[in-house]
Amino acid sequence: MANETQDASQATVNGDNAQSLCDVVRGLPSRAVVDLWSTGVCTRCILRLFGIREHDYYRSSLSRSILSSVVGDSEKHLVDSNVREPVVCRVCLGILQFTYSVDNKLVVERESASELAVSISDLLRQQGFQIDSFSLEVSIPPIIQENDRIAWLYMKRKFESELWFQGKSLSECISAKDALKISLTEILETMLGCKSSISSFHIRLTYTHRIASITVDSSNEGCKRRKTGSGNGLDRINDDIKCSGFLTSEADAVVERSFVSLQANESPVCLKLPLEQSSEPCCLEFLCYRTQIYVGGRYLKYSRNVSQSCWIIDDERMGEASVEEILGSNVLPICRGDNYKFHAAGREDIDVRMLGSGRPFLLEIQNARLVPSDDSVKSLEIAINNLENKLVGVKNLKLVDSQSWDLMREGEAEKQKQYVALVWISRPLKDEDLHFISSLKDTHIQQRTPIRVLHRRSPLEREKIIHWMRIEKIVGSSQYFLLHLCTQAGTYIKEFVHGDLGRTQPSIGSILSCRAEILRLDVTDVKMDCFLTE
Amino acid sequence: MNEYIGDETNHAQEQKEHEIEDPELHKLILPNAEDLPLIPPSSVESNFVSYFAPDFMKPRHDQYIYRHANGKKGGITAIDFNVGKSDRIGIKVTGKRKKESNSALCKVCTNDATYIVRCCVKGSLLEVNGRLTKQPDFLNSAADREGYIAIIMPKPADWLKVKDSLLSLEDYKKLREVS
């Protein structure tokens, strides 16, 4: 029922539009209109060459009989009974006639923009996209822009003496791309129920033409040849001509001069376009996608058997899971995206826990079918924190924009990190040790690349700073203690404790003049401003 | 006057920073003393597998190799040299060629003799222990740790060739009758 009323109203609308369209066409200089029609230019291209901008005229369907009758009324003697709207326009190659091929095989002819819009909105629904805005992008073969200029110059040659041509300029013409957008945008807005604006959701229409792309190259070469041949001061014209599709005004001069040289031999001025009249329209590919959305927050890692990123060597996984996969696999289905990428501000070893305020991270979700609401994200945070195995936790989970990326990377190398290590030394702990360790501030250490990472990092000696340290005694043990320390980012803590065969100096062992070993390490604070609780 | 107060607040601030304020966090990090082993495994024991090449080139000149298995790409080995007890030891490093195979690593001078230490494993030479020139007695006093001579990265194929001729820790102990 709803569909029927919709169709009926469309018809009335089209009926109204068809009437006003006829009026507009009748208002144009009929000689020019008929002339252009007979040389194979479609009505909508004629409209845009004359600078007609109202979108209604582009939307409505064109009945061929109406068209010829429009002009026929007043200028019947000019009309050849065979004048019709061309099947495939020579200028726009079918684009503004909503005629296109799919996969270079099936040719589709649409009566109006609304039918194309329906195909688009069907695709959206099929893919399951939920949107609150969209951005329409159109890509057309460059030759069409060239065709516009040639058609305009043709009109100028033929009709410049006419009254109606006075004062007109090429800049008034509407490009094919703009005309297409004009015809589609409002319809899409109505069908999709949201506005066209700068959006993360893109609808992209890509038109290509098999032959046209080859012809542009050869026509450009043709221009070059004429350039060297004529010697009319055309030597100044540089490589601008080579840039496809964007001809400069100097290039216009070249094109015009080439007209002159052609017309010198032929008396009637005719429209010579690079492409021969073709029955082959452009091939259209349309796709809908959403650009990346970001979910950020801080993660905690409670397990000593979970790596940060997925770590698989020779089909064997290291550890029982990864933070990346746990978070990604929980967020991705909520956004119904294609896949995710995990980024974090630094990392910790698989056997090191991440506690305290957590480590900032970003999950990049690609082609999300929907953008989750704030409430969704809050529930997601609770769900992750209540997972049965409690390997990983999250804090401050929320949707963020791409600037957060810079925020996270910014100053990553300067930020301080705080740790607590379980240390054993080869002799009993003395009270002087506690005081001495606490007194050391901003200690500089030299670290050679630890042996355990030498296979993947360059062998360098790096200077790092230990900002402060504090020993916490453990009840019941004289040789074990907790070492709290705050260091510069990039410091290898384990090597600082055991010395790495003397390659980190000083080390806890050398400072306390004994052998020291580290049993466990936890990160307790990543001192960064991003993704903190507000 | 103001500066003085400033210092006080800074000090209190620092104290506060260094305390772990969160009792939950503290519970997580505090170990149970009873669970801790009397003497924990050393970093060398945890990270490396030891191999021994007894009587390499000369009788009673044993070489230790610590092998770190960094993934499957080929491990890093550290080599130590057992010189035996001598009073004075000087060491001079010879050549720093990238690929070594049974070629000289360094020269060791003791009271009565000069030895050229050769490498028992073929591989790229990553690092020679520069500290030995200043503290050559490490060779004796810390032969199994700071007294390592060099770090080599062999290709997996080269390592496998040599591996079978080397002894494990247990076998070496039996051979040399040490505990």
From TrEMBL, chain A:
GO terms of molecular function: RNA binding; tRNA pseudouridine(55) synthase activity
Cited Pfam families: Pus10_C, Pus10_N_euk
Keywords recorded for this protein, A-Z: Isomerase, tRNA processing
The keyword Zinc-finger belongs to this UniProt entry's keyword annotation: no
InterPro entries xrefs: PsdUridine_synth_cat_dom_sf (IPR020103), Pus10-like (IPR039894), Pus10-like_C (IPR048741), Pus10_N_euk (IPR048742)
Keyword Isomerase: yes
Gene Ontology biological-process annotations: tRNA pseudouridine synthesis
Residue stretches making up the Pus10-like C-terminal domain: 294-526
Enzyme nomenclature, EC number: 5.4.99.25
Domain Pus10 N-terminal eukaryotes: 89-209
PANTHER family: TRNA PSEUDOURIDINE SYNTHASE PUS10 (PTHR21568:SF0)
Family: Belongs to the pseudouridine synthase Pus10 family.
Protein known as: tRNA pseudouridine(55) synthase
Provenance organism: Pyrus ussuriensis x Pyrus communis
Upper lineage: Eukaryota, Viridiplantae, Streptophyta, Embryophyta, Tracheophyta
TrEMBL record, chain B:
Xref: Gene3D superfamilies: 2.40.50.100
GO cellular component, one term: nucleus
Listed Pfam families: GCV_H
Similarity comment: family membership: Belongs to the ABITRAM family.
UniProt-recorded name of the protein: Protein Abitram
Organism: Pyrus ussuriensis x Pyrus communis
